[in-house]
Specification:
Blueprint lengths: L24 E2 L8 E6 L3 E4 L14 E8 L10 E6 L8 E3 L2 E3 L4 E7 L5 E9 L2 E11 L11
Parallel strand pairs: 3-10
Antiparallel strand pairs: 1-2, 2-4, 4-8, 5-7, 5-9, 6-8, 9-10
């Protein structure tokens, strides 16, 4: 059986050419015909000590949100959702919980504790259908107070 996944556009919390856009909807899922969307709260997270005054601009944690709806667009409760880091990131960051169920049609996992930099791919599974989302981990370094010396 071939499953078709429709990917409308990828926004990942960024503005789409100055116009706000909704996260892409995927589905219908193989099991129940649900549609779902996945969105990452921050497309960039930071590794390293961040000055507390700058913490809002340099987040160290990102939320992965999943919204599940039925064919009429109504939120669906109690749908199992699993979150998984790509194998290369196992042990280099945390994505928790690994499994949960929707409440009010929504589920959430937190990406945190990154120990290296790079592009992180995460798989989200809903009702037998898998979506992939990503974020980037960058290294934060405090600017030096000393002027450059030629």
């Amino acid at each position: 059986m071939v499953r078709h996944i429709i990917l409308v556009s990828v926004c990942l919390g960024l503005a789409c050419g100055g116009v706000a856009c909704a996260p892409p909807r995927l589905g219908p899922t193989a099991g129940s015909g649900y549609v779902f969307s996945v969105q990452v709260s921050d497309s960039i997270v930071w590794l390293g000590p961040v000055n507390p005054a700058l913490a809002a601009r340099f987040p160290k944690v990102a939320a992965v949100f999943v919204t599940v709806q039925d064919t009429q667009g109504r939120p669906v409760d109690d749908v199992p959702v699993t979150f998984e880091l790509e194998p290369g990131w196992a042990g280099s960051a945390t994505l928790a919980p690994a499994a949960t169920r929707t409440r009010g049609g929504m589920a959430r996992a937190l990406f945190s504790e990154a120990r290296t930099t790079g592009v992180v791919r995460m798989m989200v599974r809903v009702d037998g259908t898998t979506a992939q989302v990503h974020l980037t981990v960058l290294s934060y370094q405090e600017p030096s107070d000393s002027p450059d010396v030629p």
